[in-house]
Amino acid sequence: MNGHLTPAGDPGGTAGEGYAEVDLAETVQTLAGQLEQVESLVRTLAWGVNRETGDLKAALAALTARVDQLAPPAQDEPAPQPTAWVDCATAQDWQDLAGWVDWLAGTYDVQPSRAVLPCWPAHRGGAEELAALRTAWRAAATAGRASKPNDALIYWHDRWLHPCLTRLREGYQQKTCQDTHKPVRTGRSTDLDLLATACVDAAERDAGIEPNADEPAVDPATGELP
To answer: Model pTM?
Structure first.
């Protein structure tokens, strides 16, 4: 038996086809109901997700506002301007440099004509060079103690130490301080008239103005008119 009875007197099975149509309609109706339930569940889940997303966005905005209040945006600090060592050194810096210079004089028994004279602190250019020499020595001495052999210290001796000692005695007014310190003669300031001429020429060049061919040119070697 197939679970459906065929009415008597219906030899063609027309009634069976009717029962099949009824079963199919019930199946479609059942599926439609289930689909409606799924759609309802999806709408409920979507509502919950949207609500939670909104709460998270609000919480994030509140947290961001609190962070902005606690830590204002950092501003880029301007790069420090280069300054000569003699213009920014502290009293302790001078003491440290003097100790190193005395160590240098006691360690390297150079010829008297190359020795650093005791009046070096009164010579600003010499003090500037000695400070730079000490900085280079510290870097070379640190590198020289590395586990891997290197030529940092010998390079410092060859490239920096002896040329610097020569410049201190030959290139500065220390040369006249053999027995006692001689007052330093201040160098002459820039000629303001010639400086003004150079500035005008630079401004005209930047503006694209051709120089006047009738005007005599300044001698670049002497800075004077012919």
So the answer is: 0.56
Per-residue pLDDT at 110: 93
CB-side exposure of 122: number of CA atoms within 13 Å?
Answer: 15
pLDDT digits over 118-127, tens only?
999 999 999 9
Lookup result for tokens 């005599």: 216
Alpha-carbon distance of 126 to 62, in angstroms, equals: 61
Is the Cβ–Cβ distance between 120 and 130 less than 8 Å?
yes
Place of tokens 């302790």: 92
Structure token digits, residue 66: 């609190």
**192/190 Cα distance (integer angstroms):** 6
Q: State which amino acid sits at residue 164.
A: C
Which residue has 């005209």 as its token pair? 204
Which of 104, 207, 120 lies closest to 169 in space, CA to CA? 120
| Residue 51: its H or E element | helix 14-70
Describe the crossing of helices 162-170 and 124-144 by its angle, rounded to 10 degrees: 170
DSSP classification of residue 208 = T
CB 51 within 8 A of CB 59: no
